[in-house]
Write a structure and sequence with these properties.
The protein is of the alpha/beta class. It has a single domain, classed as Vaccinia Virus protein VP39 (Rossmann fold). Helix content is about 30%, strand content about 25%. The protein contains seven helices and seven strands. The chain is globular and about 60 Å long. The N and C termini lie far apart (about 40 Å). The model has no long low-confidence stretch (mean pLDDT about 90).
């Protein structure tokens, strides 16, 4: 991944702020709408595996990947029971080495937004497009530029940042304003839902 304070250190030093220990409400709500059926699923930046395990308990066959070996070690240690049969974890840098698809559903909570370079965000989206099955969906939760100034919390990306990276390779179905679970106050976020394209994006037109 792009340079960043060592991810492994975040898991060695205690509970990272993004690891709430409960399934992400936006993910739970999305799955409960029935828009995505249980199938082969990828979670990028799975951390300790809370969301991956929840998905496995709903009948999804989940691969969780994370760049931090300690996060993957802790995820494996915490995964047992019924979830263990449907959930596995790998140390993997998704930007450099995405896993082999296809996946019917791809999820990331705050992974896409860590990249400051627009070219890296475009590459991330292109890798998602590469591993998505026809008709597959990607749900990404992304720190937004809404809300007051703050010194801490998730990186902030504009709606234009998201569209510039995603629209060329995936069809955006929904880009809406939500809040991340956790934090006080909860940081504003974008909920981006995109699907695999059946045809290339067309050029913008004039009148």
């Amino acid at each position: 991944m792009a340079p960043h304070p060592p991810w492994n250190d975040s898991y060695a030093s205690g509970d990272p702020p993004w690891d709430t220990g409960t399934p992400e409400p936006a993910l739970v709500a999305f799955v409960q709408t029935g828009r995505v059926a249980s199938g082969r699923t990828l979670e990028i930046g799975a951390g300790r595996g809370t969301n991956a395990r929840w998905l496995a308990e709903q009948g999804f066959d989940v691969l969780g990947v994370d760049v931090a070996p300690l996060a993957v070690e802790q995820a494996r240690a915490r995964t047992g029971g019924a979830a263990a049969a449907r959930c596995r974890f790998e140390v993997r840098d998704f930007l450099a080495d995405p896993p082999a698809g296809p996946f019917a559903f791809v999820f990331d909570r705050g992974c896409f937004h860590v990249f400051d370079d627009a070219a890296d965000r475009a590459r991330f989206a292109a890798n998602v497009a590469r591993v998505l099955a026809p008709g597959g969906l990607w749900l990404s939760l992304i720190g937004s530029t809404e809300g007051p100034a703050r010194e801490e919390g998730p990186p902030r990306r504009t709606a234009r940042d998201v569209a510039d990276a995603v629209e060329p390779v995936l069809a955006i179905e929904d880009l809406s304003a939500i809040h991340f679970d956790g934090g006080s106050p909860a940081p504003p976020a974008w909920r981006c839902v995109a699907r695999a394209r059946t045809m290339p994006a067309q050029p913008a037109t004039g009148h």
